[in-house]
Fold:
Amino acid sequence: MSEPIINGVTFDEYASACARLSQGVPLEKITAVLGLEIPVWEDTISQWNNKFGELCAQDMAIVTRYSDLFANPIGGRFANAASDTTSIDDLLKLVPDLNTYTKIMWDQSVASQHGVDPVSVFAKYGLNLGEYGALTVYYGNVRNEVIKGPVQCAEWFEYDDTWKKHFEEIYAKEGVDLGEDIEF
Structure:
């Protein structure tokens, strides 16, 4: 069975475009690479979003493919396009190991529970939301390799708990009150 193409855009190009948009690449640059007018792109993305759901229902391997392209958005016509995204190699210079990734993960998670915008936490580490998403895909795969049995799983949860507790203490000291402006 041939792969679907919507308005001339392949799945790999759709995934790569989504990744680039999430990293802040202007829509005009995306549509220029694809040779589409913005209204055609809007129709294309809508149709691809629906089609992606259908493809996932047929075969979850498509999620892995999407994730790989999200982490390294060079599918189709984007393979030869100038990259306005941060490469995974450059991202790994900012977040070189699973420990650093886990630190950022718990920082933004606990911060958001205390009313802090998680995007501002990413910025503290020199990242934007799309770059963090690419790192999440990359380190999700690394975690799957690290956790191969109950012993590694228990060790990993202990490791996670250390960062979680660390940031809970920090943000508790800052005393952010999410309900301070609510009157009863």
